[in-house]
Design goal:
Blueprint lengths: L27 H7 L4 H22 L4 H18 L2 H16 L4 H27 L1
Helix pairs in contact: 2-3, 2-5, 3-4, 4-5
Amino acid sequence: MHSHFLVEPPAVPLPLPAADPDATPIDLAHLFRMTLGDADLQAEVLDLFDQQIALLVARMDTAPPAAMATLAHTLKGSARGVGAWEIVTAAEAIEAAVATGAAVEVPLAAMDRAAAEARAAIARLRQDRAVE
């Protein structure tokens, strides 16, 4: 059974990460639009995205560059669907670094931070929903 996250966009935004005062880990208004306001679908999509973040980011840390870029590309597509814009940005940076042969340590660190923030936001949404 899936928990429910949203029925409509929250009245109070999630806490903002320090890096970008205008960004949140998950763009809840975007997620609402993408799921046509279906709370069950929002919960399911976020559950799957949370699992995907954990799996793909862990694999990125040890993958060879070409595989790392593929994993980042896959995660980028999912992140766009839920409005996890910092993950999108980090994935694009990883893809660009691999494509140009640049060092990937900085983009990987950005991905780790963005992934942790998104997973924490999803956990807060689960917890908030469980209280309701």
